[in-house]
Amino acid sequence: MTSVFAIIALLGAKYYHWNWLDPFVGIIASFLIFRWTFMLLKDTSVILLDRGMDPMLSKKITEIIESDGDSKISDLHLWRVAQNKYACILSIVAKNPYPTNAYKNRLKGIKELAHITIEIEHCDEQQVPTTLNTL
């Protein structure tokens, strides 16, 4: 679009001697580019700064993993990797932990998860965290 404006400005200067048209179109084009840049930064900063976590998805993951009454999520990170697709890193603390695949199988029903990484820590009851750290 800015290139078309520049060509029109050059033709206007050549045929009609409107020498002011080229710098004027340059200023208008710079405002358009600034606006496009601002919108792009606004749309991508959520992803680039890892602020694209879906709170409902986080809650669903927590409910599924902690449904056995023993496993607790001590750390949960979700970030958007594509349109409606998320990568997930879970740290799970449990007295009697299940194998990693068992936890991954619990989360298979969540179609938004494209990649899951799970870390499991075995502990006694005094070490089980009561709060969840999320990003």
TrEMBL record:
GO biological process assignments: intracellular zinc ion homeostasis
Membrane topology recorded in Swiss-Prot or TrEMBL: Multi-pass membrane protein
UniProt KW keywords: Ion transport, Membrane, Transmembrane, Transmembrane helix, Transport
An example Gene Ontology CC term for this record: membrane
Transmembrane region(s): 20-41
Entry's localization field: Membrane
GO molecular function terms noted in the UniProt entry: zinc ion transmembrane transporter activity
Keyword Transport: yes
PANTHER family, per the entry: PTHR45755, ZINC TRANSPORTER 7 (PTHR45755:SF4)
Protein's recorded name: Cation diffusion facilitator family transporter
Lineage: Bacteria, Pseudomonadati, Candidatus Kryptoniota, Candidatus Kryptonium
